[in-house]
Amino acid sequence: LTVVMSLDFKNIIANINPSLANHLNVQSKSISNETLASLTSEVNSLKQLKQQRLERLQDLGSSLIDLWNLMDMPMEEQLRFNHVTSLVSSSIDEITRQGSLAIHIVEQAEVEVDRLNALKTSKLRELIFKRQNQLEEIYRNVHMDVDSETARQILIQLMESGSDLSNLLSSMDDQVVKAKEQASSRKEVLDKVEKWKHASQEESWLDEYEKDDNRYSAGKGVHINLKRAEKARILVSKIPSLVENLTAKIKAWEKERGMPFLYHKAPLLHTLEEYIISRQEKQEEKRRSREQKRLQDQFAAEQETIYGSKSAKKPLGNANTVPGTPNSRRMSTPSGRYGASIGKEKRGSGHVGAVIPVNYVSLAKDDQKCG
């Protein structure tokens, strides 16, 4: 008993009978009935003290564990009092280690409990806001709406009104558990949402890519874009089935929970329906655009067939070209063929525009000769 509680054995014995304390004294020891009764009484007192100290350390150990768990204390600090918390589930007969129930052990545990209680208020406030951050992170990861500012204002009001911080922290822990469960229930739907969004993005990229007339031109990254376009076409072909499967999952989730599946504050099913309508309109617009281009190409080909050969045989000059231009000197006119001789006569006669025919016969001169 004295070893476990670090008590002075000699002093205890000396208080009962001084002669018993001096084992070097050869004087005979008194073993009277009175001495035996005193020893028995002391043993019983020590047993009671051992029980009291064990119960006290068990209470302190339980308080330490609760405070550690409440305040998320690091393991290093907890290990410092492992010799105390290890007694929590021990029976009186199991306590045999030297000094395990010493008074200084009890005092150290009491000081630590008092210290943690003093830190409890500020630490609990810190932990409550830490749980709020955890909640917001969970909601954000599964695309759920949360009014962070309002939630924090409510927490501050509860703290300032004197609410039990331990109960408030416990309530926050419950909210975190429920949020994790809700996030887990949304995971399957959200996985399909990500596949749908990726396919939609690739479809938009492919539309822009196919509008580029120079997409096949040699250049840096052309082969990369060609491979991406090939994969995008395969992915785009799967969009109808992706949308169908996603719609079925959303409806099943909503039926099971009796509430709409919200995604960024909006019902996801409604967003999906709008996407389907918008995609159909875009596909119809692309179909009309292709049809219009086909008709334009067909018309151009017909025009080429009708007018292409005539325009190829069209003479370079024009008979009505104004005289004096380079083409007028090459026209198939009498003046053009015989311009050298006739031109001189033309300038000499002084009659502008008079042209002498090639088969002209000077009848006037012959008549004069005959006369």
Automatic annotation (TrEMBL):
This is 65-kDa microtubule-associated protein 5. Keywords: Cytoplasm, Cytoskeleton, Microtubule. Residues 318-335 have a biased composition (Polar residues). InterPro entries: MAP65_Ase1_PRC1. It comes from the Eukaryota. Residues 283-349 are annotated as: Disordered. The lineage of its organism: Eukaryota, Viridiplantae, Streptophyta, Embryophyta, Tracheophyta. One of its GO terms (cellular component) is microtubule. It is found in: Cytoplasm, Cytoskeleton. Residues 283-296 have a biased composition (Basic and acidic residues). Belongs to the MAP65/ASE1 family. The keyword Chaperone does not apply. Its main location: cytoplasm.
